[in-house]
Structures are given as structure tokens and as C-alpha cells.
Amino acid sequence: MAKWGQGDPRWIVEEREDGTNVNNWHWTERDATSWSKGKLHELLVGIIVENEAGRCEISELKQVEGEASCSSRKGKLIFFYEWNIKLSWKGIIKESGVKHKGLVEIPSLSEENEIDDTEVSVSKKKGDGDILKDLMKTAGTARVKEALGDYLKALKTEFTMGMILPTKAMATQELTVKRKLSVNPLQIQASSPVALGVRIPTVAVHMTELFDTAAEQLYSIFTVKDLVQKFSKSPAVLEVEKGGKFQMFDGNITGEYIELLTNKKIVMKWRCRNWPEEHYATVALNFVPIPGQTELQLDCKGVPVCKEENMKFCWQKQHFEEIKDAPLGTD
């Protein structure tokens, strides 16, 4: 791997054990779907428009389908979002006190169109009340588009905080400025190093599974090469010792053993091939004996947010269920 100060500067990436994406070079991605749904609800529900004839309010985020994500590559942020949104509104005619309800539909909010060009349609349930519908089509639509614009601003600022941090050159410039401004240069020398790169947002995963076998047998299924190859149905490389490397599922899963307590616990640095480069999670397997069975407790920290469901699927389908189905002597 290239080091600081060597080679073409376009390819300079500092090697870091903590998975930090230095110089913002590597492709990283955050899933913004869940965050976006919450933000859209926050910005859209409760919008009120009013004139001398009536008053309308968006009362419910009835439907929000789609996805959003933000990717970082070579120090640049790339946004993807595509939403189909349906809102409920209610209104009252001031003179008569009659109430009406309707819908606001946004069939395609995406990065392909400007907010001003985004289609917003307003409908009303049967009956009178067109005066309220007109209010929603004019002032209401304007407020909805304003809220959508606020969502995009938040997506590009609030959600992305920390995704692009200073490169080494930028950090050096900032440190030089600090030294010039400082009245006590010794404080600069004693200060902590400038943090470089981008930390990948992660989640923790906890799963438990019962196996009809003794803890000793279950432990061996994870540490004996032949047994690993049986349940994974693929070649495996295992160096079962502290600091030893392992490789499973044709190289799709790799890592290193951190701790091995025979028949009790396995702790590993663990990564999937399609994860951000050099990023590892910490996986702990605890083997808990109970009468006639063993409870396997999986605790995993550092899973990339966008890979959480894949991680659960990998362990449930490709580990737990395959172990139970394979002729490993677990029954």
C-alpha cells in the first residue's frame, strides 16, 4: 500500500489498522433510508397553510417508499435518493366550519430532478371544499417543496457530517496556522495528532441460536478445518491460534483470531469481501452449555450500517442453519 510522501499523490493512502478511510480515497457508503424517513416525517407532518377562507394541515405521512444513500469517493460525496411519498391533509372552511380531507402525492422525488420540477399533486375526497383544495395546490404545494428542499439540505450536511474529513495536506495547513496563532508553541507540540480520514458508521449485532449438541462439539465445528468445510461447502484456511488467520467461503470471509478459550469462547477480527476496504468487525462467539443443548451467543461490533441485514443473513442462513443441516454429528 502506498505511504505518505511516496509515489503519485493521487494514489497516496495512509495504512490504518482502525479502518479509517484516510485521504477520503476509498469508496464508502452510508444507507440514509431510515434516517430519511424520519427526517421527511419531521419536516412534512404538521405543515399548516391558511388564508381568509380556510386552514389546512398535513396530518400524516401516509406512505414513504424508496431509498437513499450517500457515498464518498476520492473526497467527493455522491447522493442517491428516490422516494414515492403520500401525505394526508385535512382542512376547515372558516365561514361554514365544514371539514374536508385529501391527499398530497409526490410520485418521484429523486436526484434526477430539481425540487422546483418535482411533481406534487393534490386531491380531495368527494364533495364541496374546492376552496381548500386550491389552498393546498398553491400555498400547500409551495410549503411541501420548501420542506423537501430542507430535507435535501439536511441530507447533504447533517447526515454526512464526518464522511469527508481533512486530507493530510489540509490538516498540515491547519496545524501551521494554529502554530502561528498560538502564544505558546509548547502547547502545539504536546497536542494530540490531527485525526485523518473517515470512520465508517457501524452497528452492533446480537444473535442467539440453540444447537442440540455439546459445547465441545459445537466449538470444534468452528475450529476444525474439515468441519468448517462441511458446513460451508467450500475450502477453508484456518490457523487456530491467537493471531492466526482464517479464510472461509472461497475467501469471501476473512479475519484473525483474537482470543480462543477452548469450548467456551472465540473472538475474531472478521470481515466480508464486499465491506469497505480494510474494515473489520469484532465477532465474539460464546458457547453456553444448557441441559442437552448449547446456546451459541453471537456478539458483533463494528458492522457497517449498510451491511447489517447481510450480516444477520450470513450468520443465520450460512452458518447456523447449514451447521444444523450438515452431517456434523450435532444431533
Write the layout of secondary structure elements.
Blueprint: E1 28-31, H1 33-44, E2 48-50, E3 54-73, E4 76-93, E5 99-110, E6 121-124, H2 130-156, H3 168-181, H4 185-190, E7 202-211, H5 215-223, H6 225-232, E8 237-238, E9 245-248, E10 253-261, E11 265-272, E12 281-290, E13 293-304, H7 308-325
Antiparallel strand pairs: 1-3, 2-3, 3-4, 4-5, 5-6, 7-13, 8-9, 9-10, 10-11, 11-12, 12-13
Helix pairs in contact: 1-2, 5-6
Order of helices and strands: EHEEEEEHHHEHHEEEEEEH
Task: Quote the distance from N terminus to C terminus.
Answer: 47 Å
Coarse structural class: alpha+beta
Which bin fits the share of residues in helices? 25-40%
Mean pLDDT over the full residue set: 81
Low-confidence stretches: 1-19, 165-197
Radius of gyration, CA atoms, in whole angstroms: 28 Å
Largest sheet, in brief, is: 7 strands, antiparallel
The number of helical runs is 7
Percent of sequence in beta strands: 35-45%
Strand order within the widest beta sheet? 7-13-12-11-10-9-8
GO molecular function, one term: ATPase activator activity
Family: Belongs to the AHA1 family.
Pfam families: Aha1_N, AHSA1
Protein name: Activator of Hsp90 ATPase AHSA1-like N-terminal domain-containing protein
3D architecture notes:
It is a single chain. The protein has 331 residues and is α+β, with helices and mostly antiparallel strands. It contains 7 helices and 13 strands. A 7-stranded antiparallel beta sheet has the order 7-13-12-11-10-9-8, covered by helices on one side. Strands 1, 2, 3, 4, 5 and 6 form a 6-stranded antiparallel beta sheet that branches. Strand 11 and strand 12 form a beta hairpin. Helix 1 crosses helix 2 and helix 5 packs across helix 6 (225-232). The model is unreliable at 1-19 and 165-197 (pLDDT under 50). This is Activator of Hsp90 ATPase AHSA1-like N-terminal domain-containing protein. One of its GO terms (molecular function) is ATPase activator activity. It comes from Equus caballus (Horse).
